[in-house]
Amino acid sequence: MMLEHVGAVYKKDKKRVVLVIDKVDRLMRNFNYFPQINQMVENSEMEIHAIGENTVYAKESNAAQKMYFSMCVVMAQAYVDSMKDNIKRSRDYQINNGEYPSCAPIGYKNVRGDKNKADIILDEERCFIVKRLLQEYSTGAYSLGDLTEMAKKMGLRNKTQGNGLLAKSQIHSMVSNKFYIGIMTINGVEMPHGYKRLIDDATFFKCQAVRAKANKVPFKYSEKPFVFRGMITCAKCGCSFSSYEKKGHVYLRPTKSKGACDCRPMKEEQALQAVKEIFQSLYIPPTMLEEMKAHIKALCEGKADYQVSEFQALSKEFEEIERKKKKLLTLLLDESVQSITPSIYDKNVQEFLQRQHEITNLLSSQVEADKAFQITLKALLELCSNSYELFASSHIEQKRKLIGFVLANLQVKDGSICYSLKKPFDGLVNIAKNKEWCARLDSNQ
């Protein structure tokens, strides 16, 4: 812009323009312009006065003055290159220490911590919403479009000045961002970061499985409230069953996309009745429920000592790695020894950081498991005891979530529904059969 302005003034006044600068390195930030500057000086379009170096660069300058100006340009280039090296070195140091040198994703925020040091922390206004969205998506009951609407209703906004609504593409980036499980991506390379994780690995990889499935099977009828949308296939040919409505009734129709097959349509009501019977078979009597809860409590108490010793061993290994990292850095910086090269240092540090990331995951998982194990199992047993009532009284999206939570491989075979129970529900049904307890009373007594 400055050179364009100098050229415009020269064309207008037909007089040489005098450019006054402090130092040459303030002018030469981009050395691609030096040939153009040199040409303008030789054409008497401008002359340069550098106050800091006490020099003038003009067409009439003698050889010594021109050489001195050229030396100042070279020194300026060396200064800029040195600044680039320092920035790169600082950036590499940050990355090796698990710091993310960029803008934090939604759910986190960039702040200034102790001694004005840059840091990234959980955004208390947004993190719980992001976590809820990822948990909901991992169930497989919602599409990216559903999550976009859900984010809008929950009040999740961009971090920009306009606080606009999140687009579907941003939701897509959110569900596939490994930053939430402790991994940052720098120039295509994944490495652990040192900030607090938002979700656990299991939830994240469930999201990836749902996303991969959604890319293969588009949600053609996502706007219509069908319970078995995208859930049922033919046991013989493997084609999927699509839902459609006719005269107030919903039917399941085979797409026959895998070729000719004798599979036939069936009413959604028939499939619903089969699923209801499955949930009804999960019933656990109150007396057995109390016995199982007591057994769970004893199990939790029995493994407490093992958890403590395992936690201490992992913590000790983490501290030992920290000690090794400091020793490596000392060896690298000690010029009198020079026992290791920067490449060897980087390789070892990356291995140490990866192991520390694994240890952090193990410690985090252990703490979360210790807090949630007993509560989760009790809640699971409560679900089994009331699963039929929950399924019968829930709306369509809740029914889809319960089916996806309990059942796998829903198929139609010879006009009937066949399935596989997910763990641990298969074991609970087997226990029910072995104990030969009485089923709950149904509506037809």
Quick take:
Helix content is 54%, strand content 13%. The protein is an alpha+beta fold.
Describe this structure in words.
This protein has 445 residues and is α+β, with helices and mostly antiparallel strands. The chain is 54% helix and 13% strand. The chain has 3 domains: 2-96, Rossmann fold; 108-266, Putative Large Serine Recombinase, Chain B, Domain 2 (Hect, E3 ligase catalytic domain fold), CATH 3.90.1750.20; 286-432, no CATH class. The strands form 5 sheets. The protein has a 3-stranded mixed β-sheet with strand order 1-2-3. The protein has a 3-stranded mixed β-sheet with strand order 8-12-13. A hairpin with a 2-residue loop joins strand 6 and strand 7 (189-192). Helix 5 (127-138) packs antiparallel against helix 6 and helix 9 (268-280) packs across helix 12. The longest helix has 52 residues, at 342-393. Mean pLDDT is 78; it is low at 217-222 and 436-441.
What's the structural blueprint in terms of helices and strands?
Elements: H1 2-13, E1 17-21, H2 24-27, H3 34-42, E2 46-50, E3 55-57, H4 63-96, E4 108-112, E5 118-122, H5 127-138, H6 144-154, H7 168-175, E6 183-186, E7 189-192, H8 201-216, E8 233-234, E9 241-246, E10 249-254, E11 266-267, H9 268-280, H10 286-302, H11 304-333, H12 342-393, H13 396-406, E12 407-413, E13 416-421, H14 425-435
Parallel strand pairs: 1-2, 8-12
Antiparallel strand pairs: 2-3, 4-5, 6-7, 9-10, 10-11, 12-13
Helix pairs in contact: 5-6, 5-8, 9-12, 10-12, 11-12
